[in-house]
Each structure stands twice: as C-alpha cells, then as structure tokens.
Fold this protein.
Amino acid sequence: AQRVTQPEKLLSVFKGAPVELKCNYSYSGSPELFWYVQYSRQRLQLLLRHISRESIKGFTADLNKGETSFHLKKPFAQEEDSAMYYCALSGGADAGGTSYGKLTFGQGTILTVHP
Amino acid sequence: EAGVTQFPSHSVIEKGQTVTLRCDPISGHDNLYWYRRVMGKEIKFLLHFVKESKQDESGMPNNRFLAERTGGTYSTLKVQPAELEDSGVYFCASSHPGGGWEKLFFGSGTQLSVL
C-alpha cells in the first residue's frame, strides 16, 4: 500500500528564514512525487513535481529514494508563501499506466510566514 | 480558460437526506477525478472517469455514493442517504489526456455538512 506522511501539521517561520516542509512516502515501485499548494481562498494547485527538478517560487524538492523522502525547501521564506502544502504520490505507470491522476496525499502542512 | 467549476460551494443537509454535487471540468479534459477531505484527515481519492466511463472507483466509500458523467462532460456525485461521516470537502479535478504524468486542475470544492 502507498502512503504519504507529512509529520508537521503546522510550521511557523519568520520572513527571510529558511523553511523545510517534510514529506516521507512508502511505495514499492517508482513513484511520481508532487507538491500541491492551497493559498487562502484559492484552489489547490500544483507547485512542483520531482521529475521536472525545477524551482518554482523559490521552492525546490529533491527525491531521496534511500530515505523515501521528498522534502520541500526554500532558503528565504516570504509572507506570500503562507499556505497549506500537500505532498502527493502517484503510482503512475506502476498503477497500470491508466491513472496518473490518482494521487495519495499527505495530511498537509500549514505554513505561516510571519513578518 | 475557465477552470474547474463545482456547485454548490456549500451544502448543509440533515442525516438521511440526499445531496447531489456537480463538477464541470475544463473543456476538453477527458479525465475527471473526485476527491474528498474529511476533517482532520488527508485528501482521499474517490474515483476517476475517462470521458463517460468509470476508470477506477476503488475509493468510493460505499454504495450510498453514486457518481455519473453522462456524455463525458460534467459529473455529479450523489450521496443517498447522507450520514454524519460524509461531512467534508469534496474536490473535483480534471486533466488533459496524454502519455505520462497528469497535471490536475482542481475545483474550489464543495463543503458538505451533514447534521
């Protein structure tokens, strides 16, 4: 069974401080990992995916298969980063290749960046 | 481009009543997903349509839940009869078909409260 764990429900930092949102997963195959974000009064939206290895809004996330982790990091947090962040996993091709959008979500971390 | 639209945004009903949630995906998106977030828990997959066909309904809680997507356009999710534990936020998401991963576009969700 696949599982995503976000150990922190709440995370508070000050503006300009580094931030790391933790995500661990369990999956027997080769997963696709994502971070989704929901800003206040906005829809859930994709922030980044591990394969693209890109930086979005200053955030990066590296897939560590040895530690089965996909932590989200930003060196200097901004107030506009305050939001709910969800780590999610897709079995992708391992799930028969027909349901890439079938995601397993973590419980989410509420990030608050104080001025 | 119009986003994924969900109606109603909020619904308050009594236990035993029936409620129907509607989702209009982005035009041209063959994939449509329903997810649910029960308070305090993670967002969970309910089912997946490809056009009008149910591709995967493994996440549907029980037979009180019925999803349809007639004509492969909008989808409805009916709960009959509703129970207290059905309360939560129901999200719809759609994606464009293609090989490989899918970027999901989420609706704003329907907050369902069963009293």
Remarks:
- Chain B touches chain A through 27 residues (CB under 8 Å).
- The longest strand of chain B covers residues 43-50.
- The two ends of chain B are 37 Å apart (CA to CA).
- The mean pLDDT of chain B is 92.
